[in-house]
Amino acid sequence: MVLSSPADFISTTPRFNSKETLIPKCKQTFSWNLMIRSHTLNSNPHKAILVYNLMIIRAIPPDKFTFPFLIKACSLSSSFRKGREVHAFAIKTGFYNDIYLHNTLIDFYFNSGDSALGRKVFDKMRVRTVVSWTTLVAGLVSCGELQDARRVFELMPLRNVVSWTAIINGYARNQMPQQAFELFRRMQLHNVPPNEFTLVSLLIASTDLGSLRLGRWIHEFARKNGFQLGLFLGTALIDMYSKCGSLVDAQRVFVKMENKSVATWNSMITSLGVHGRGEEALALFVQMEKAKMQPDAITFIGVLSACVHTGMVEEGCRYFRYMTHRYGIAPTVDHYGCMVALLTRAGMLGEAYELVNAMTVEPNDDIWGVLLRASRLQGDADLEEVAYRKFLELDIVRSDMVADVLSQHHSNESFKWEVG
Fold it and tell me: Per its UniProt record, what PANTHER family does this chain match (predicted)?
């Protein structure tokens, strides 16, 4: 990439008011690096990039400490074009052969979806640390290249807890729970103590197996080894207990957690709803608001799902409106799906169809499938025909459930033709 002028450095960056960012008044590179680092670590990556742009415009020379946090800022803000530009400038200024920069670049390219460049950076490294190898493994896992990730993992000259956790997490999140537990067993044989994220991955694997016994064993393992109920471990335990059928244990974990994230509240609200405790789910949502916790789109999927499972139509409609009016959350296809399910289960086919026609996003196969099945079960032949034709317009691979609905639709057509 050719950088012809200082203006090139800001061409790919969002504009900010300079008053919003504290700019070092001195000309020492250290001070500018410190500001870039501070913004990056405090979730202000765009401001970190802005500081860098001003640094270049003011002819403050970068050093090898400038680039790693800057590349991380580009990754966090999805400023992938900017990141490539910075990579090129690091090469031009002679600071490319820095191991910390290489490790950050590997992570950056995998986050951008360019696994080929991530591998290329790794392959060209003269010296590789355990962090370099682990970053490659985690990157391959994130891009769905699990087989290659395992091959690299087995080639590692040295592994730490992060390395083991990265590959275990890969298997757990790709519905391969047996392999996740086999690797954990190997990890123990190598005397590598797990961390909180290792246990979270194992809880995901337990949930996939539907094994309450394994989930409880991991919980007990955590207690015996001094793990606190942190945000990630606690939330994973709530999710595991709920999905494995023990709502009581999920509630106990929730109550014991001293600190709760939005994801923690979401998990408990959803768990109550799925287990048919809709009123408790809505009461917990009220508690969440009283705790000054800002709900997100996923929160309201849990709230609406609770209404669906318990048939609370009025409450569901109210929260559907409340979501947008109070918090400015635009309905997604999942929110609409909950509402269509809620209305059709209540026999309100006309209202459900009106909502589908008023959707601000394109209805998917799940929504048309629900409407199709409901109209068939409730004997609305006209709406069934409309839903059926809309469904056929979608270029999708249909699930077994919907394929069964289509099959029954054809059976109904044949029946009507024979007696006609």
Answer: PENTACOTRIPEPTIDE-REPEAT REGION OF PRORP DOMAIN-CONTAINING PROTEIN, PENTATRICOPEPTIDE REPEAT-CONTAINING PROTEIN
